[in-house]
Specification:
Layout (H helix, E strand, L loop, with lengths): L11 H10 L12 E2 L2 E2 L1 E5 L14 H6 L7 E3 L5 E3 L2 E7 L2 E6 L13 H12 L13 E6 L2 E6 L6 H4 L28 E7 L3 E6 L12 E6 L3 H10 L4 E2 L4 H4 L7 E14 L9 H10 L2 H7 L5 E3 L9 H6 L16 E7 L4 H16 L2 E7 L1 H9 L5 E7 L8 H8 L13 H12 L4 H16 L3 E13 L3 E2 L16 E2 L1
Parallel strand pairs: 3-12, 3-13, 16-17, 16-18
Antiparallel strand pairs: 1-2, 4-5, 6-7, 7-9, 8-9, 10-11, 11-12, 13-19, 14-18, 14-19, 15-19, 20-21
Length: 498
């Protein structure tokens, strides 16, 4: 959503950073090369490529955001599967058969066929490590005419959603000639990746033979700018047209008409250790929940640029609020009486230590004695998973790569969940989570997911505090840039610069 304009603060904080990007796009075609439908689009992105833009890594989301690579399936706003490179599909037990879209060519001029689809999926399924979307999933693909049959080891209602992950993008055979995957000139999207300059920049041109509607912009020029202040300066100075992930601290000094805040499927949650220590007592878990003032955290730490949580799933999944009802708590709040607790969190996300400090004050006011343990995530994760803390503050993605939150709920709150920070074990919750995981995609599954969420909240195994937003900057001349909560789209066929 685009927030109303606020008073513009002095821009002195941006002056130094502006120098970092002076000439950032100098010499780029974007400054002079206007096509019939507009200029090339200059994009400042936060993270540089980590794996040479291999689609088998998180770099895949960059290819997707540039509309350079496509998948068999895409997701609508509700998270339901829609046709992309596959036109239709059907399930038969453990197997799903997909009909491949005819008339599609890769950027190298070769044709999209069932065999090329199988090649891409097989490379992903046999990769080491596997793409995250296939973690724990055994998948094989077989071609039959213009169809591809995908089979999993166990029946999986989420196969189409899994195949929507950018990590399962379909690329031309030439992309797989070496040990690594090279996406340059190998996608099917409306923009062709033509050049990658390491971790500094990338260039894309409109692909004139695209199977769908032709892109309105003639191309995209990308700069990777990890410094958030510098990215904000690029928007303020007019050196970039679209800017990713503007820090909260910089958002206030920008023209608010240029900012769009997009709700993220990410929840800042306080996980309470139900296995041992103070929070093994359900009444003390309830006391902690009642002591937390999430609105104060949103206003103080996030400067109002986040949403107070009503549940574990936030506004990025609009159906959750529509289905959610009141939660009946299992225990009344008890009295802490100076009970000592340790809260852990990490420094990798700049807001986390400040959130923990605010929680410390709130819980101490309620009667707890609170100690904080704050480290880098890699140095604290194993202790958190082993139950070394009474509570842990985590910013948690709630839909992972499939667009479906059932996997997150199971991972975090099932007795055998692999990310069970709360050391939580409850047969009733396990039953609700199993039902949600096995339900067919659609209304029934969404209803089961909300029932599972309620089962977790009833026991106060975790206290959802807020849902984060990502702040995107669009210059005044930008038309129809995507604002995608899943961060799969940014520049589409409809995006251009006037």
């Amino acid at each position: 959503m685009r927030l109303p304009a606020r008073r513009l603060l002095p821009a002195t904080a941006l002056t130094a950073a502006s120098a970092l990007l002076t000439g950032c796009f100098a010499g780029a075609e974007s400054s002079t090369d206007a096509g019939a439908d507009g200029k090339r689009i200059r994009v400042a992105m936060m993270q540089p490529p980590r794996s040479g833009l291999s689609p088998l890594s998180d770099d895949a989301f960059k290819l997707s955001r540039w509309s350079a690579a496509e998948t068999l399936v895409k997701l609508d706003e509700e998270g339901d599967a829609q046709p992309a490179l596959a036109t239709k599909w059907r399930q038969s037990g453990r197997s799903w058969t997909f009909e491949i879209r005819p008339g599609v060519t890769f950027h190298d001029g070769t044709e999209l066929t069932a065999e090329t689809v199988v090649n891409s999926l097989t490379r992903a399924a046999t990769a080491s490590p596997k793409p995250r979307i296939l973690d724990g999933v055994e998948l094989t693909a077989k071609a039959d005419g213009d169809k591809v049959t995908v089979t999993t080891a166990t029946e999986d209602p989420l196969v189409p959603q899994r195949l929507s992950s950018p990590q399962l993008s379909i690329l031309a055979a030439k992309a797989y000639r070496g040990k690594t995957v090279d996406p340059v000139g190998a996608g099917t999207g409306p923009f062709e990746l033509t050049k990658v300059n390491g971790t500094a920049s990338a260039s894309l041109d409109r692909y004139e033979d695209y199977w769908g509607e032709k892109a309105k912009a003639p191309g995209i020029d990308v700069k990777f700018v990890p410094d958030g202040t510098a990215r904000a300066a690029a928007l303020r100075s007019g050196e970039a047209d679209i800017v990713e992930s503007i820090p909260v601290s910089q958002a206030a000094v920008l023209d608010q008409d240029l900012i769009t805040e997009v709700p993220m499927p990410r929840t800042n949650t306080l996980y309470l250790n139900t296995g041992k220590g103070a929070f093994k007592d359900a009444s003390l878990r309830a006391a902690a929940r009642e002591a937390i003032d999430a609105e104060a955290i949103v206003k103080g730490v996030y400067e109002g640029r986040a949403d107070v949580a009503e549940g574990l799933l936030g506004p990025a999944l609009p159906w959750a609020a529509e289905l959610r009802g009141p939660v009946t708590r299992a225990a009344e709040a008890g009295k802490p009486n100076g009970e000592a607790i340790t809260i852990g969190t990490y420094t990798d996300r700049s807001e986390m230590p400040e959130v923990a400090a605010t929680l410390q004050q709130q819980l101490q006011k309620a009667g707890f004695k609170v100690k904080l343990d704050v480290r880098e995530y890699t140095n604290i994760e194993s202790d958190a998973l082993s139950g070394r803390f009474d509570a842990f503050v985590l910013s948690r993605a709630t839909v992972l790569d499939s667009g479906d939150p059932a996997a997150y709920l199971y991972s975090d709150f099932a007795t055998d969940g692999t990310f069970n920070l709360s050391q939580f074990a409850d047969k009733g919750v396990d039953k609700a989570l199993k039902k949600a995981s096995e339900s067919k995609v659609g209304d029934a599954r969404r209803k089961a997911i909300i029932e599972a969420e309620a089962a977790v909240l009833t026991q106060d195994a975790a206290v959802p505090m807020l849902h984060e937003r990502v702040i995107q900057g669009d210059a005044p001349a930008v038309v129809d840039a995507a604002h995608d909560p899943r961060e799969r789209e940014l520049v589409t066929v409809d995006t251009y610069v006037k």
